[in-house]
Amino acid sequence: MAVATILDANETRFCKAYFSCSAKCDSANNNLTEPFNVIIVQARSKPIISMLNGIRAKLDKSIKESTKWNVHFNGDYGYEIMCGRITYIMDLERMTCSCRL
Questions:
Q1: Per-residue pLDDT averaged across 3-23, rounded?
Q2: Which of 44, 56, 63, 76 has the fewest CB atoms within 10 Å distance of its CB?
């Protein structure tokens, strides 16, 4: 249904004149993608296969390191994130974390 609606739409809506010239597609900047872009910045300059292998290696390392952490729901504060003796408390309502990040 959605595809039919788009295909039946007036083509002028998809004309380049209706898009901002300042929009860039080589990087996205928001709270979720900024840390990811920082981590993969070196890999992004490589050919596609090398880039994907570099990103995969970094992702595998992060996954391995993340298995050391435990996340527990805490009804009063949101979540407690623990690794050994280190504990951080996330308050989802206030959007804060005791790690101060």
A1: 58
A2: 76
